[in-house]
Amino acid sequence: MDELFLHYVWQFQRFDATALLLTSGLDLQVFHPGVKNRNAGPDFHEARLKIDGLTWVGTVEIHHRSSDWVAHGHTTDPAYQHIILHVVWDDDRPLYYPDGKAVPTLELKNRVDPHLMVSYRHLINDPQEIMCASQLHRVASIVRSQVLEGKLVERLQLKAEECLAINRKFAGDWETTVYYLLASCFGMNVNKEPFRRLVEQLPFWIIQKNHNNPLALHALVFGQAGMLAGKPVDEYQTKLTSEYQYLCHKFGLETTLDRSQWKYGKLRPPNFPTVRLSQFASLLAGKSNLFQPIIDTERQPTWRDVFFGKVGEYWKAHYDFGKEWKSEHPAVGQVFMDHVLINAVVPLLAGASAYFDRQDLMDRAVDWLEKLPPENNAIVRKYVKHGFDVTTAAESQGCLHLFHHNCQKKRCLQCNIGVSILKPVMH
Question: Hey, which bits of 201-345 come out as E strands?
């Protein structure tokens, strides 16, 4: 028996409540099942019950078997010494508090409609990645939209937590936090880790000291990335190598990355690490700080103008040292700029909103996502294929969170789509 299923049965009271009795024989009446607890401790808070004529308000714990109470270490855990009800599928042993009183227990195995269990098993055992795909036609479009809205909120909360964790990693330095988030985006999925290692070994204060010197910035970025090792292939690489050697001595830098750590396979030249490194260096040029311009910028177009300037002349003509484009290449594409906004700027706004208690920053993050076009990736396309109306980045972000945190983990009953699919079988 899946405990998630039991949570669902209790939360939505999907069991026969006629002449409800505890295993001890006492009468039970449920006024409210409580609020699901997403943190440590009992599964439901603020439940309201009446046991043998006496009304109780408190916590409820859910288990497959009564003996799980002991197996999970609840016997000596103070957090579980005052629950008002233990809900189980199978009451396989009596339980007692340390003071000798019996733990009030409700057994459900003979009170749940077998058809509901069959429907649930059919849903979670569907071989498709989106397990409810074959039944989505039964779900109202407004339910799908509401689910995506809720998943967007969850995703932004998660992104805020991740941002704050990065900020703590860098001892509360918001400039380095932005620097790290931007680098992660420029690496995309393929080269995210090399980009992160690059910025970890190239402190932002060194970037700040050279922000008005594009040659120095490119030398620092390419040098620390391990792209200047070996014999230069042209005059530009020679200049960068010479500048990098000087800066290494000046700032005591040590190269820890090697060109072999950067991945090129299955990438088109516009996404080559050399191109992204040149664009990253260009973004840093002329900026003594990164955090305040983001916090102070209220409009998306203004943000793009502030952060994405022109790349150097060399990189307009080359995608690697000594290797030329067939025609002049544009600086940074609109799709990539949106990618950076969605995956670096929005998480930063969410994190700063929580840290500084500024709701306006979170509102701006949501507003920007609602005005951006949706991401076009394999996951989002799955939902579009199955009838989801995904027209904004806010909705595509909701799809990503739904996929990773519900569909992949078979948490159908923590999603209102799954709940909606199972509703018709209820009595």
Answer: 318-320, 323-324
pTM of this prediction exceeds 0.90 = no
DSSP bridge partners of 30: 49
pLDDT at residue number 425: 44
CA distance 54 to 50: 5
Q: CA angle, 249 as apex, 243 and 251 as ends, to 5°?
A: 95
Angstrom distance (rounded) from CA 284 to CA 290: 8
Q: What pLDDT sits at residue 325?
A: 84
pLDDT at 1: 66
How wide is the angle at C-alpha 302 spanned by C-alphas 298 and 306, nearest 5°? 115
| 160 and 350 Cβ atoms separated by less than 8 Å | yes
Pairing mode, strands 54-65 and 44-51? antiparallel
37: three-class secondary structure by DSSP: coil
- Report d(CA 7, CA 281) in Å as an integer: 51
Condensed to tens digits (0 to 9), the pLDDT of residues 172-189 reads 999 999 999 999 999 998
Between vectors from CA 240 to CA 239 and to CA 241, what angle results, nearest 5°? 90
* Distance from C-alpha of 399 to C-alpha of 152, rounded to nearest angstrom: 8
What is the SS3 assignment for 77?
coil
- Report residues of the chain scoring pLDDT below 50: 425-427
Q: How much is the mean pLDDT over the chain?
A: 89
Query: What sign has the CA pseudo-torsion 356, 360, 364, 366?
Result: positive
105-107 vs 85-90, strand pairing mode: parallel
User: Quick one: 156 exposed, middle or buried, by C-beta within 10 A (0-12, 13-18, 19+)?
Assistant: buried
Burial grade of 207 (CB within 10 A; 0-12, 13-18, 19 or more): buried
